[in-house]
Design brief:
Chains A, B: Keywords: DNA-binding, Transcription, Transcription regulation. The first copy, chain A, is of the alpha+beta class. Chain A has two domains: about 80 residues, Arc Repressor Mutant, subunit A, CATH 1.10.10.10; about 170 residues, Chorismate lyase-like (Chorismate lyase, 3-Layer(aba) Sandwich), CATH 3.40.1410. Chain A has a six-stranded antiparallel beta sheet. A two-stranded antiparallel ribbon of chain A has the order 1-2. In chain A, strands 3-10 form a two-stranded parallel ribbon. In chain A, a hairpin with a 2-residue loop joins strand 5 and strand 6. Chain A is elongated and about 65 Å long. In chain A, helix 1 crosses helix 3 and helix 2 crosses helix 3. Chain A has six helices and ten strands; from the N terminus they run H-H-H-E-E-E-E-H-E-E-H-E-H-E-E-E. At the A-B interface, helix 3, helix 4, strand 7, strand 8 and strand 10 of A face helix 3, helix 4, strand 7, strand 8 and strand 10 of B. Chain A binds a DNA duplex through helix 3.
Chain lengths: ~270, ~270
DNA sequence: AAGTGGTCTAGACCACTGT
DNA sequence: CAGTGGTCTAGACCACTTA
């Protein structure tokens, strides 16, 4: 488990010395202090994938209520330092994976190990905001392709691709088979178009129930919502709304997609 | 205040009918249900800028503990629907502002009303991760320019720009005046370089204490951290770490920066 | 069945904002 | 000063995973 060299008054969470641990008085909130202490312990005393003591235990060690401890863990999870799974425990998260979103080709496989997995294709009326981007009447039906993006086998994003019928004129009527087969043919037709440009926007959101399920997270988990407008032949050919796991992903843009950045210095693997 | 047309069993939060409001039994968590109800009420019954009943009052109306209500409000704030200020109250947030980050010119003022406000320039050793991006020894000192980005007068981002001495060779030694004056001259020197390319990454984080203060948020508030690597003359000339308010900002990339998108359909202003 | 994290309660006090 | 949101407590029960 590696005790490492701790500097200060040694607020040890990896040791057996329980109860003696006290938070010295501070003007700042306890959970903030706690987060800092835990963060340092994570750097020095724990390996990636290692499982932490359970919440009741940790709370007792630090002499705080479980709710307070959880506030600290919540933040660390938000920052991608921890991963919590109900019924299992809290583990030290690996550094975030860089996920390229700026590459021009629409279905590009991205870095090695990156895939889009076509889910299905239905017909539906897009949300008002998407309809506006597409420049169609709110209420007009469009093709909706559902895809899942995998990196190293792990799902990192769930996407809804809104494709107006006008963008894929050579396709049979919307009804027919609504499975992955149709999804793929819609994508194939789309890629025939020459892309003029793409606009992209990123914002913070919380996962809808369906997305959460596919991303293996609880509903409401923080996500990065990437909205992309694909412009071809002078008009908006499609709009994509992709929901990326905020805890595990670092979205990369630009010419050479700088992967290989690690935010957390001390990396070791759990035994 | 506008009562609007509510569809379902009328879970009214804007009315005087208190106490009668009950959450019907559901397999999903209360706070999730609550969030949905509040979200709909926000769309139909409230105007932007309007102030909501206080938390104790709302909790009572819905027959839940305050902590549970707060869990719902937390999510709505995360999604940018609400703004809470201690000592004041909870108000309905305006739609997120689109903030352009993809434009090529480094100090570009962006959309009308957009400014970078130079703060100061100190000398320091960058974090290990930045040092790696810059390709310098960890421990080597660089210029650190602090800037604040304003949109329509509101601060939206706090930036730290790391500039190795090698990138601005014509500048006097690092000591001299560490104020905004030096910051501006560093920026001026930087812009002399011809930019080859930029790599950019976006990830979720929580605001450090100093950034939080400048962004008028509490420490730990959710932020979007944009890390940019500026490449000039074949090497990394500078690295910028910009911290954007996640609640108020939608980061836009690409050719034409699609502003004017509103996620929230019914927009009215508070009286 | 035992152990984990997730939800929820009913209080309390604190820090900050306005008047 | 009164009123707001922010923090904190000490419990309880639930949903889920694993053995």
């Amino acid at each position: 488990m590696n005790k490492g060299a701790k500097s200060r008054g040694d607020t040890a969470i990896a040791e057996d010395r329980v109860g003696t641990t006290q938070l010295e008085s501070a003007p700042e909130p306890k959970y903030w202090h706690l987060k800092t202490v835990l963060s340092e312990a994570l750097d020095s005393d724990f390996a990636v994938g290692e499982i932490l003591p359970n919440e009741r235990e940790l709370a007792a060690r630090f002499g705080v209520a479980r709710a307070t401890l959880r506030q600290a863990l919540d933040q660390l999870e938000l920052e991608g330092r921890l991963q919590r799974r109900r019924g299992v425990g809290t583990t030290v998260a690996p550094p975030r994976v860089g996920v390229a979103v700026g590459t021009s080709q629409h279905d590009w496989p991205g870095a090695p190990g990156d895939t889009w997995q076509a889910g299905g294709c239905t017909s539906a009326t897009p949300p008002a905001m998407v309809a506006r981007l597409l420049g169609i009447e709110p209420g007009e039906e469009v093709n909706v392709v559902r895809r899942l993006r995998l990196t190293h086998g792990q799902p990192v994003a769930a996407e809804l691709l809104y494709v107006p019928v006008g963008s894929v004129p050579d396709l049979p009527a919307i009804d027919s088979p609504s499975g992955p087969a149709r999804a793929r043919s819609v994508l194939r037709e789309l890629q025939r178009l020459e892309l003029d440009s793409q606009d992209r926007a990123v914002e913070l959101g919380s996962a809808r129930a369906d997305d959460a399920k596919e991303l293996d997270r609880l509903p409401g988990a923080p996500v990065l919502v990437v909205t992309t407008r694909y412009v071809a032949e002078g008009r908006t050919a499609a709009v994509s709304v992709a929901t990326y796991r905020a805890d595990t992903c670092r979205l990369t843009f630009g010419d050479s997609g700088n992967v290989e950045i690690s935010h957390h210095p001390h990396e070791r693997r759990a035994s």
